Amino acid sequence: MIVGPLLKSESQAPICWVIIVPLAMISGAWFSGEGMPSFIKSFAEALPFAQAINASRAVINGASLSAILPDFYRLIGWTVALFSAGIILFKRRMVS
């Protein structure tokens, strides 16, 4: 929702991978972030990718709903914020 209005054509869509792949790498999707510097781990934990991964792993390991609620609430907050930003950018793009 945010990247779409910023692109000029469909051929620029692979630019999204420039954002997604590094986020997945530092968020622990493919390997553990234990060996990363603390500032990168802190940055990654603040992003929604890491919270979704943490909640998913907890569910796979049999955690209850109450155990994943903090991550779930953060994901809802990120969803509302990013979706709202995407709507605003899309509206601005349509007007111009």
What this model shows, in words?
- There is one protein chain.
- The chain has 96 residues and is an all-alpha fold.
- The protein has one domain (3-95).
- Helices cover 73% and strands 0% of the residues.
- It has five helices and no strands.
- It has helices spanning 3-6, 15-27, 38-46, 48-60, 65-95.
Question: SSE layout and pairings?
Answer:
Blueprint: H1 3-6, H2 15-27, H3 38-46, H4 48-60, H5 65-95
Helix pairs in contact: 2-4, 4-5
State the helix count.
5
Give the overall form.
Answer: globular
Count of the separate structural domains? 1
Beta-strand segment tally: 0
The amount of beta strand, in percent, is under 5%
Straight-line distance between termini: 17 Å
Helical residues, percent: over 70%
What is the arithmetic mean of pLDDT?
A: 87
Label the structural class: mainly alpha
**Secondary-structure element string:** HHHHH
Low-confidence stretches: none
State the main characteristics:
globular; 96 residues; 0% strand; mainly alpha; single chain
